[in-house]
Amino acid sequence: MKLTGKVWKFPQHDISTGLIRRQMYNHLPPQEQGKHCMEALDPSFASKVAPGDFIVAGTNFGCGSSTPAHYSIAALGIPAIIAESFGALFFSNCAGGALWPVACPGILDLVETGDTLEIDTDTLVVRNVGSARSLQGRALPEIYRGMILAGGEKPYLRERLRREAAG
Amino acid sequence: MAGMHALHKIIANRTRPSLAKVSPGEFVEIEPDVFGVIVGVNASDVKRLAADLEELGIDRIPLRDRIYAVADHASPAPTVAIAGAQKAFREFFKAHGIRTFDGGAGVSHLVLCEEGLVRPGMLGIAIDSHAPTMGAIGMYACSLGGGRLTLYAIGRYVIEVPKVTLVRVTGTLPPGVAGRDASLYVNGKLGQRGAYNHAVEFAGSFIESLSMDMRFTFTNMGTEMGAVASYIQPDRTTLEWVRQRTSEPFTVFETDADYVYDTVHEVDVSGIGPQIAVPHAPDDVRPVDEVAGRKVDQAYIGSCASGRLEDMAETARVLKGRKVHPDVRLIVTPGSREVLKAATELGYIQVMHEANAIVTSANCGACPGLHGGILGPGDVAITSITRNFEGRMGPGGEIYLASPATVAASAIAGCITNPLAA
Phi and psi at residue A128, in whole multiples of 5°? Predict the structure, then answer.
């Protein structure tokens, strides 16, 4: 499957989950958290971004607290985050929330904000449509891949329970 | 064949189906010995969890006897919304027979260790990025990322078997310099990604010399090096501490002599002075003297990094017979009820009251910016908390990290102060 969307680039390293979605919004329903997504770094981000767009980020994106900051990203209809690398807790949170976390060393040099990016979710090859340059993203573990393809942790689990009950 | 690290043996022991050996980079499914959860702050979160379990047909949670819920974040509740969420969580836990520690018990991973509910050789998962703190007792303790529903529904969790970074700490500290100073110094040396996605083991003569309280400080701050788990091999200090708390049996796993660490760091802490991490990174660590004189609005002592009895003792030692500066609010939040009770019996809390400190019940307090000392825009805080990321204690606040002694000395002076010079 191929995903195509516009890039919003946050080139900083070590963007914590508290900057992705401030802790003070943790109590809000997941959909409402979208309004505050990345507001600490770009207060107008939520009003500019469109469903299908991507976040591109630097090293250790989503470090820090295990708080489910990915809710705010999913709420905006962003299907994938492409970063130089991820914080481990945020990375697995994304998979459970059916967001593609694509670790892709070199991504900061491949695209700028406004560029169109294409992600092949089968191969995790990431391509800048304008320049036609591409990079190979890191393979996802099968279990996370399965969760994302199933639509998140719950559908994945439903299928697994059905399979295990069938023996 | 290369040997195994103790952490890899602990993980292998809990793999399902059971594996004799695990290797770094593998994703394996495990059944934890203990699962620590929080009485959360989001009502829709627990409602969805309950609905999801019902939809999946899960009436009885398989791990219910080893799930422990702790109301540590934002407890007692600071807002109506959070009060409602905590009520919903408590009802959920009660309905499923899950033991709950309510507000005032302390920070989840302190409580689990102090109550003897986790022991050496165990594998524990907790919903808190500082869960690796529990590795000080010689267990594999990691934070829950994605996978909560799976853990509740079928008692399984996926772990990427980590490589292990060894941090060997040697040397002795000058009088008046604390374990937290040494811990900050090590974080500064290794950096925020110094053990990125690895487990970190702390060893060496300095670590061996530490009390359990200060060992917990080191393993806690492993998280701020990007580590997924922290570990200290159990020794006599560990075993005495654990046996005071539980008579349950446990297994101490040993690292094979021929195990090869992925990375080894040697850090000598001899002769260091008080250390401080400046905004906004826990690895931007300098001698306190470099920023001495910076005016502070709030001083805060507590958190899972430095909320233990030794930290309370240091605080009282510095505060004794003095008063907090009138322009500063000093807030002390003990890490657990055990700490608060002991600090009360030993007279430390009275010293704090005499100094005009604000002493709160035991919990996560102001550290995650949810209650009990939220910073306003432009507020400068000197604290003993875990991390000083931008906005952590409130948007627009600036956070310095230091030892309890440095925080207390700064609270008295009204500005950042080297406690040795005060």
Answer: -80, 110
The counts of H helices and E strands in chain B are: 13, 18
pLDDT at position B1 over 70: no
Instruction: Determine the Cα–Cα distance for residues B257 and B3; give it in Å rounded to an integer.
Output: 7
Beta-carbon pairs below 8 A across chains A and B: 116
Please tell me whether residue B164 adopts helix, strand or coil conformation. strand
Interchain CB distance below 8 Å, B147 and A64: no
Nearest to A153 by CA among B28, B40, B146: B146
Mind telling me how many Å the CA of A81 is from chain B's nearest CA? 16
| CATH ID of A2-166, from 3.20.19.10, 1.10.340.30, 3.40.50.300, 3.40.50.1100 | 3.20.19.10
3-state helix, strand, coil in chain B (%, to 5): 35, 20, 45
Of the residues A19, A20, A23, A72, the best mutation for testing chain B's interface (the one with the most B CB atoms within 10 Å of its CB) is A23
Q: What share of chain A is helix, strand, coil (3-state, %, to 5)?
A: 35, 20, 40
pLDDT digits (tens, 9 = 90+) for B254-270: 999 999 999 999 999 99
Whether A154 and B44 lie within 8 Å, measured CB to CB: no
> pTM (2 decimals)?
0.94
d(CA B156, CA B152): 8
**CA–CA dist B132, B206 (Å, integer):** 20
